[in-house]
Automatic annotation (TrEMBL):
EC number(s) stated in the UniProt entry for this protein: 6.3.4.18
Protein name: N5-carboxyaminoimidazole ribonucleotide synthase
Quaternary structure, from the entry: Homodimer.
Organism: Pseudosulfitobacter koreensis
Amino-acid positions noted as binding ATP in the UniProt annotation, renumbered to this chain: 100, 140, 145-151, 175-178, 183, 206, 259-260
Reactions catalysed according to its record: 5-amino-1-(5-phospho-beta-D-ribosyl)imidazole + hydrogencarbonate + ATP = 5-carboxyamino-1-(5-phospho-D-ribosyl)imidazole + ADP + phosphate + 2 H(+)
Family: Belongs to the PurK/PurT family.
Pathway(s) the chain acts in: Purine metabolism; IMP biosynthesis via de novo pathway; 5-amino-1-(5-phospho-D-ribosyl)imidazole-4-carboxylate from 5-amino-1-(5-phospho-D-ribosyl)imidazole (N5-CAIR route): step 1/2
Every ATP-grasp domain range: 104-289
Length: 348
């Protein structure tokens, strides 16, 4: 069987490896951190930094195709890898989604709605942008933010100095606050032959900036459901994308507003493990391996809940509950805010 290289050894890499193994593939993880969750279930794991040219070269030579579970891979590392082995999703998808400004420009260029935004290289730019965008608004670092990290909310222009300080010198983006009714996401997949399939949109609830639950089906009208799927397909087609992408959306009276895109399997797609014949992890493996896409129809209503930090104390009880599927990541150390696992509840 072929070997799939995965950049990143977190829970997403772990669940991709499990799905790959089920289809007869081997996986090889590349991860700088020690004891990555994916290493337990992968065929091989290279522990090395992204500037280790010899390790990157050997990794690329040992696999047939490369994919990734996070978007912040240094460009120089990608250059080395891609010269040896193809990478899916492609470089353009990574380049665009690594930077919130590039991403917003790309989305608006496709004719999609986003929050009003402005590039904020310095304090003077924030003062100017607050005249047009106003408050409430959110200042976000352009790069490396996740789980709501690297964000400062402004409720009045007096919050500007503190918000700039919170960015710690990093280039930032100001976004107008979107008054949404609900948040939904579309998990979309595009195959190497250009077929696009979308999972039923999920409704997302965040707590303290971190995804708390995803519920399917989302409370969306038929027409918004269609809009969501068409919009996601437009994004994947524009990028000539191969693999799974998460598209986060705000639902507003003026339609769907794109919050952000993630060029990888997505936390809000974990419900597919127990709601569909073929889940997002297998779908991603199929796409990057050049297979046809599988059956992603929802066969059950599901509520996915993340198990974060001390939520792990609930595992014994959850393990004894019917219609409940536990997915634990094997992380040794429990930390506040750390994603330790998730639970999919089947709703009958
Ligand atoms: P992720 O872990 O999904 O990558 P992130 O750190 O990139 O998260 P965002 O998705 O930008 O952060 O924001 C986290 C949450 O904050 C959103 O899901 C939404 O609930 C809220 N939020 C972000 N931007 C806005 C906005 N412009 N208007 C209203 N709410 C927002
Ligand atoms: Mg994000
Ligand atoms: Mg997000």
């Amino acid at each position: 069987g072929a070997t799939i290289g995965i950049l990143g050894g977190g829970q997403l890499g772990r669940m991709l490896s499990v799905a790959a193994a089920r289809l007869g593939f081997r996986t090889h993880i590349f991860e700088p951190g020690a004891n990555p969750p994916a290493a337990d279930v992968a065929h091989a794991c290279t522990t090395a930094a992204y500037d280790d040219v010899a390790a990157l070269t050997a990794f690329a030579q040992s696999v047939d195709v490369i994919t990734y579970e996070f978007e912040n891979i240094p460009t120089e590392a990608l250059d080395i890898l891609e010269a040896i082995t193809p990478i899916h999703p492609n470089r353009e998808a990574l380049r665009i989604s690594q930077d919130r400004l590039t991403e917003k420009n790309f989305l608006t260029g496709l004719g999609l709605q986003t929050a009003p935004y402005a590039d904020i290289p310095d304090a003077a730019a924030l003062t100017a942008a607050l005249d047009t965008i106003g408050t409430p608004s959110i200042l976000k670092t352009r790069r490396f933010g996740y789980d709501g990290k690297g964000q400062a909310r402004l409720t009045s222009p007096e919050d500007a100095a503190q918000a700039i300080a919170d960015m710690a010198g990093a280039p930032a983006l100001l976004e107008g606050f979107v008054d949404f009714s609900i948040e939904v996401s579309v998990i979309a997949t595009r195959s190497a032959s250009g077929d696009v399939a979308c999972y039923d949109p999920g409704e997302n609830v965040h707590r303290a900036g971190i995804l708390h639950t995803t519920t399917v089906p989302a409370r969306l009208s038929a027409s918004l459901r269609t809009d969501a799927v068409l919009l996601a397909a437009r994004i994947l087609n524009a990028l000539d994308y191969v693999g799974v992408m998460g598209v986060e959306l705000f639902v507003t009276p003026s339609g769907l507003i794109v919050n952000e895109i993630a060029p990888r399997v997505h936390n809000s797609g974990h419900w597919t493990q127990n709601g569909c014949a073929v889940d997002q992890f297998e779908q991603h493996i199929r796409a990057v391996a050049g297979w046809p896409l599988g059956d992603g129809q929802r066969h059950s209503d599901v509520v996915m809940e993340n198990l974060i930090g001390d939520d792990m104390d609930r595992v014994p009880e959850l393990a004894a509950t019917r219609d409940t599927a536990l997915h634990l990541y094997g992380k040794a150390e429990v930390k506040p805010g750390r994603k330790m696992g998730h639970v999919n509840r089947i709703i009958r």
